Amino acid sequence: MGVIRRYADLLPVTGETPRITLGEGETPLVYLERISKDLEIELWGKLEGCNPSGSFKDRGMVMAVAKALEAGAKAIVCASTGNTSASAAAYAAAAQIPCYVLLPAGKVALGKLAQALMYGAEVIAVKGNFDRALEMAREAAEQKGFAIVNSVNPYRLWGQRSGAWEVCESLGSAPDWHAIPVGNAGNISAYWAGYSQYREIGKISKLPKMMGFQAAGAAPLVTGKPCPDPETVATAIRIGNPVSAHLAREAVELSGGEFNSVTDEEILSAQYYLSSKGGIFAEPASCAPLAGLVKLRGLGRLPKGIKAVMVLTGNGLKDPDTAMSQVGRPTEIGDSLDELLEVMKG
Ligand code: F0G
Asked: Residue range 137-144: average pLDDT?
C-alpha cells in the first residue's frame, strides 16, 4: 500500500499529491528474545532495512518526491552519506525525474554507491565531508530551482513519522525507551513528532524517552558543539553539524531522554552481537543504539524490565566491506567428503 496511501489522513497530502510507492513502510517489529534476556529488558528491533531501498529513508523520500512532483519540480537533489542517495535515486527512477546526488568522496559504503548508480542517478563525489556537500546541494538546488530532498525538506520528516505510528500500532502503546542512531538528526525528530501526534489524537497515552546515540568521533549533540572533522566506521552517521539539531534537542529534552556516544569498537561489537545472537544483519550506524544500551547497562543505567524499541535503520548488506573486516574467512576444503566431515567434527 505504501506510506502515502496508508497514512493519507495524517500526512499533509492533497488530492493532487501523486500516490507513488515502492512498497515502503510496514516493516517488521521483531522481539529480540536472547538479547532481551542478556540485557534484562524487553527489546524490540524495527527492521527498517526491509524497506525497498534498504533503509528508513524511503518513508520520507516517498513524501518528498511526491510533493516535488506535485509542485512540478524538474529534478531532485540531495547530499548523502549513502542511504538518502540510494532512496532518492530509487524514487526518482520510479517517477522518471532526474536526480543529482552529492556524496563525500571515498566515504560511502559500497552497496549504497552501487544502488545510486544502478538507479540511474547522476552521482557526484565531493572532496569534502557530508556537511559541506549538504551546503553545496542546498545552494545548487536553490539556484537551479530543483527540489532538495534532504531532511531540510519538511516532507521527509512527515513521512518518517510513520515509523513511530507503526511501532505504536504493533505494541499497542509507545515503548518506555526509543533508542535511535543520530546523524543529521532528522529521524529522531520525526519519531518524536510521530509519537506526539499519536498522543494528541488519542492513539497513545504516554510518550517514550528519546535516547539518541552518536558515534564518538561524530558526536556534536553529545559534546554540544559542531564537530569539524567527523570520523567513524559508521559512515552513515559521519556528520559534524546536524541540520535538525534543534529539533532533536527538543525531542530529547521534552521526553526526558538523552544523547550518548559509543565508540567504533562498541558499534562493531554490537553489530556482530545483533547478527550472531539475534539473526539480524544491520549496518554499523544502525547498531549504535544497541551499543549504547549495552554501555548503559555496564554503567548500571539501564532500568530493568523496560520496554525498548531500537530502530535498525539500514540493512547490513549495504556495507559488506566493514562486515568482512570483522569476521573470519570461510573454511576452504577440497571436493572430498572426508574433508567436509573432518570440518564438521567440531
Ligand atoms: N542510520 C542510517 C543507516 C543512516 O543512513 C542515517 C542517516 C542515520 C541512521 C541517521 O539518521 O540523519 O536522520 O539522524 N543517513 C543520512 C544519509 C545522513 O545521507 O543517508 P538522521
From this structure: 98
